[in-house]
Design goal:
Layout (H helix, E strand, L loop, with lengths): L5 H15 L4 H29 L23
Length: 76
């Protein structure tokens, strides 16, 4: 599903419109929530795992001065 054409997008929108035509807004929200809940739960668990695996470190990093470069002047 990486390379959708304009026609593919129109077809998907048409199918979606047909499948949701007779739904109330509350029904539509419930179906949408049911469809995205597994993905949302996965993202939340990944965020939690990342917090648990990354140790907390207080940053005391200091920026180093930017290096300066001298060029030879050949046009004297």
């Amino acid at each position: 599903m990486n390379n959708l054409t304009i026609n593919d997008i129109h077809k998907i929108r048409e199918e979606h419109a047909i499948s949701t035509r007779n739904m109330s807004f509350d029904e539509y929200k419930a179906v949408l929530h049911k469809e995205i809940k597994p993905l949302l739960d996965l993202l939340k668990s990944m965020k939690l795992e990342q917090k648990m695996t990354m140790p907390y470190m207080k940053s005391s990093a200091v920026a180093e001065p930017q290096a300066t470069y001298q060029t030879e002047n050949h046009c004297q």
